[in-house]
Amino acid sequence: MKVYIWTDGAAMPNGGPAGAGYVVVGVGGVHLLGSEALGDATNNVAEYKAVRNALRAAADAGATSAHVRMDSPVVFGHLTGASRALAEHLIQLKEEVEAQKARYPGRVTFARIPREQNGVADELAKNGARASKALSADRRR
After folding, report:
1. I want to staple 50 with a disulfide (CB 3.0 to 4.6 A). Which of 10, 20, 23, 90 is the partner?
2. How far apart are CA 93 and CA 95, in angstroms?
3. pLDDT tier at 138 (50, 70, 90 boundaries)?
4. Predicted confidence (pLDDT) per residue in 33-89, tens digit
5. Collapsing DSSP states into helix, strand and coil, what is residue 24?
């Protein structure tokens, strides 16, 4: 089953409370939404985790190929080979995404889209970041 995925990450501010969000829509009717509170992280870390989490969830639901849409120029560049991840933590996250890609017998492709076309994933990522902020505030009390 082929799926279409939208992913986004958010850090508010960058390096602060972060979240990852994704939407998975399958031709066979699979519809998955995901939002995760990540604690403090950079936007690039949140973007990578959104892609990794979406590919994992879709594969777990039976997806065999995926077309992933994102608005992050950095992560898109790394995943398509247009640029290289240099920071060790981003190299590790790229490897985690590649491990999830390997679960698909069909192709996994990536496309960069304008932020305006990524509204639901963006809102899910922001929800995760807001949850990270709330959890952090609770720990300080």
Report:
1. 20
2. 5
3. low
4. 999 999 999 999 999 999 999 999 999 999 999 999 999 999 999 999 999 999 999
5. strand
* 2 contacts: CB under 8 Å, gap ≥ 6: 26, 27, 63, 64, 65, 66, 67, 106
The side-by-side arrangement of strands in the sheet containing 108-112 is: 31-40, 17-26, 2-11, 65-70, 108-112
Per-residue confidence band for 30, with pLDDT thresholds at 50, 70 and 90: low
Q: Where residue 126 sits, what CATH number does that domain have?
A: 3.30.420.10
Q: Three-state SS for 20?
A: strand
Q: Which residue range is the domain that position 126 belongs to?
A: 2-140
Is-above-0.70 flag for pTM? yes
Number of domains in the chain: 1
Residue type, 110: F
Hey, is 86 helix, strand or coil? coil
Cβ(26)–Cβ(134) under 8 Å? no
**What six digits make up the tokens of 121?**
């994933």
